[in-house]
Write a structure and sequence with these properties.
Helix 2 crosses helix 11, helix 10 runs antiparallel to helix 11 and helix 11 runs antiparallel to helix 12. Helices cover 48% and strands 12% of the residues. The two termini are 24 Å apart. The chain is of the alpha+beta class. The protein is built from twelve helices and seven strands. It folds into two domains: 193 residues, Winged helix-like DNA-binding domain superfamily/Winged helix DNA-binding domain (Arc Repressor Mutant, subunit A, Orthogonal Bundle); 66 residues. It has a four-stranded antiparallel β-sheet with strand order 5-6-4-7. The protein has a three-stranded antiparallel β-sheet with strand order 1-3-2.
């Protein structure tokens, strides 16, 4: 556990990778604290304080909220002079899908020897789709073997991936197959062609260095938000590369165990904290004798 006397931000204390966009932090907050808890729209001041504790200036926090409303990701309601925000149905579905992956007990494991191979040809007239397709396939676990040829560990429902991303038209330009390597295929070789293995290892090790000591003292809402954003960064980088084709000390299992341990330690405290922020009744922690004040409030 970090020294309680050290009041520097956790990112500075732990050599934290940090660098998250405010929108990514807000999605992490909704996924880790709000989703499926019947939480009403949240006052803007709560988001400003939360992001402020994570190093985001007030102007940037408010600009992010406004931008997410314009993009159809947040719904804004007015209560007197105070703006409140909640996820739109479209954004809630995005967060829900991400949370299923975040909460998976073994997010980097797939049945041995199973792969999904995808090929597509993008006409010059649709080059506007290239970035969206690449981002969607990367999040779904694919790595590029060569132009227009992608591979992912395990069996991926490509049709659902493209439909969820609003890329149904790309499905008409693509073919995908369940595949398994033949005996002469050097799996470790094509893994390194398709994915930056050394960078993926570093993502895992960054996460382990930042969180292996467990959550530090202070605001559980800020910590669970940062934990989720850090973990999503790891999940985006590692599609579940099969450990048997990597170094013996491949760190994926260790980083998954660190995430699960930290989330379990933060979950109840974060739930109490958001209830206090919203003035909702919450259980008194056993043995405390009195309710806690909100960690975000001055």
């Amino acid at each position: 556990m970090a020294d309680a006397a050290d009041t520097r931000p956790r990112a500075e204390r732990a050599g934290h990778p940090g660098g998250h966009r405010p929108q990514a932090l807000l999605f992490s907050f909704f996924g880790g604290v709000v989703l499926d808890r019947d939480v009403p729209p949240i006052p803007s001041a709560v988001f400003v304080r939360l992001l402020g504790g994570l190093g985001v200036a007030e102007a940037a926090a408010r600009a992010t909220l406004s931008r997410m409303v314009r993009r159809g990701l947040l719904e804004r309601t007015q209560v007197g002079r105070v703006a409140h925000y909640g996820l739109t149905p479209r954004a809630e579905e995005v967060v829900r899908r991400a949370r299923r992956r975040v909460a998976a007990a073994a997010p980097f494991e797939h049945p041995d020897g199973e792969w999904t191979l995808l090929c597509y040809s993008m006409p010059e007239s649709r080059r506007d789709l290239r970035h969206r397709v690449r981002a969607t396939l990367t999040w779904a676990g694919f790595g590029g073997l060569r132009d227009g040829v992608w591979i992912a560990p395990g069996t991926v429902d490509v049709a659902a991936v493209l439909a969820d991303a609003g890329l149904d038209e790309v499905a008409e330009l693509a073919e995908w197959f369940a595949a398994s390597p033949m005996s002469a295929v050097r799996v470790a070789h094509f893994i390194r062609r398709a994915w930056p293995v050394d960078e993926i290892r570093e993502r895992h090790e960054e996460f382990i260095r930042a969180w292996s000591a467990g959550p530090g003292p202070g605001d559980p809402l800020g910590q669970i938000t940062l934990l989720g954003a850090d973990w999503l960064r790891v999940l985006r980088s590692d599609p579940g590369l099969p450990a048997e084709h990597l170094a013996a000390d491949w760190p994926a299992a260790r980083s998954a165990a660190v995430y699960q341990r930290c989330y379990r330690r933060l979950r109840a405290a974060a739930a109490r904290a958001i209830d206090l922020e919203l003035g909702r009744p919450c259980p008194v922690p056993r043995g405390s004798g009195k309710p806690h004040s909100s960690p975000l409030r001055p």
